[in-house]
Amino acid sequence: MSIHVFSLPAKCSKFNDAYPRLSQHFQQICSLYIAIKDHFIKSYDLWNHKTLEILIAIILVLLFVIRFWTTSFRTPTKDSQRARTALQALQTVLVPSCSLWPARYIKLVKHTSNHRTGSRIVVPLSMFLQDVCDGVIELRDPLYDLEDLIDQGVRAYGCSVSLKVEWKWWVEWLDRMLRVNASDMESHDGVDSSNFAVISAQHIDWLIHPLTTAPPPSTDHGTVINLDIHPLTHLATIQLPKGSRTTLEFTSLSNHISFLSTKHILCLIPFLAHRLPSSLSDVLATVNDTPSFKLSTLTNATAAYADTLAALSTKLTYDPIARQQCVDELGIKGWRKRRLMLEFETALVQKGWLERWDVVLEVR
């Protein structure tokens, strides 16, 4: 992607920056002049009245010129230097899709530069997700930078660029959990389990999980069941010949992720329009409570899963056939969403916040 930057001549830029201050100073001087003329000069005789009025007008004009010159055409301040440095730091992670930065990102940079002791650029999570999916901004190196962006932040030019999880994500996810629990109960009562994917509130229902199809069956471990797209109650409905095997694949949160912490909310982003990830303990408890199955093997497949996600993201980005198929199916915005969710989940798995497990079951 090529970026073309256009800028006005330095003199024009200086005048555009100075004009609001010029207008403000002029209004202040006019107000002061009227106040002096109405309440002070009229107390003198006619000759002194005119002379004093001219002298005061000259003094006020000189004050106006001095103040305007010192505030508009002085050398760059430390604040403006910090703003440029903060913008450089932001550009190491994000780039606008056109030549100009959106005003909301300039505001973030100015907010950072106005705090003398602070050097942290905090991008709201909702704004980041929406702008990437809309094509307003892009990540320079998503598979590399997202891993730091979701944690302590990306360090560059003495600044830190990180994401901020707004409070509405906690409220939204609590609502999402209640909806999924209700859906699981309906499925358990005889409702078609294919309708379990309850879409969340409107401001996040556009997020699409990247892996919506189960992997091909394994010749060694029988049919593969992806619990990321099936509820745990689905296990009780499986009927297989005695002695056969089936494999459960699922993504779970790491044990060190505290419930409803910031890390917990970030881990759930790829699943917003999909199923909630099952915990390892819940899966094992369900297997133990299902008399028709017994546990054969349990394998941590996190490392291989991270490589698979990264390969899928690369293919969806650079393979023209795969990219065109996705665009034809979902549109250009849907392609961006799918790719972002792949990259986001890859970062979470590489951080160790999400884990991938394979559970091989044998039919009793």
From TrEMBL:
This is Uncharacterized protein. The chain crosses the membrane at residues 52-70. Keywords: Membrane, Transmembrane, Transmembrane helix.
